[in-house]
Amino acid sequence: VQLVESGGGVVQVGGSLRLTCRVSGDTFDNYAIGWFRQAPGKGREGISCMSMSDGETRYSDSVKGRFTVSSDSAKNVVYLQMNTLKSDDTGVYYCAGPGSSYRGPYYCQMIWPHEADRWGQGTQVTVSS
């Protein structure tokens, strides 16, 4: 499985960004994607997860109500729509997932946010005040 993120950038407080994670190398409809972020000087935080097999989504309390995860199976991509951004949202954002689609259907429920086998390269999000 290969994961490639895009869409980071600089945005003002209150603004929006959409991140994209392109998935290749396995059965997209059985896969799952977790979104993580790492703020400067802090540990990695799992913020969202989506299971493409049943559409289940999960969010951390820190982003619930502001971020929305979705997917487009025709394009093999997962999106993270980020609205009402705060300065605390600044960091490097990663999409990640299991080593294969075999673990996809239960990844969000039983594994995320504790581990991931495949990681994208990360994309910087900077929210300026």
SS content category: mainly beta
Shape annotation: globular
Counted beta strands: 11
N/C terminus separation? 37 Å
Using only CA atoms, what is the Rg? Answer: 14 Å
Instruction: Provide the low-confidence segments as ranges.
Output: none
For the report, how would you describe the main beta sheet? 7 strands, mixed
Q: What is the percentage of strand-forming residues?
A: over 45%
Following the backbone from N to C, one meets helices and strands in this order, namely EEEEEEEEEHEE
Q: Give me the number of helical elements.
A: 1
Fraction in helix: under 10%
Overall mean pLDDT:
97
Summarize the structure in short.
Helices cover 6% and strands 48% of the residues. The chain is built from 1 helix and 11 strands; from the N terminus they run E-E-E-E-E-E-E-E-E-H-E-E. The protein has one helix at 104-111, and strands spanning 2-6, 9-12, 17-24, 32-38, 44-51, 57-59, 67-72, 77-82, 91-97, 118-119, 123-128.
Task: Set down the secondary structure blueprint.
Elements: E1 2-6, E2 9-12, E3 17-24, E4 32-38, E5 44-51, E6 57-59, E7 67-72, E8 77-82, E9 91-97, H1 104-111, E10 118-119, E11 123-128
Parallel strand pairs: 2-11
Antiparallel strand pairs: 1-3, 3-8, 4-5, 4-9, 5-6, 7-8, 9-10, 9-11
List key phrases describing it.
7-stranded mixed beta sheet; mainly beta; 6% helix; 129 residues
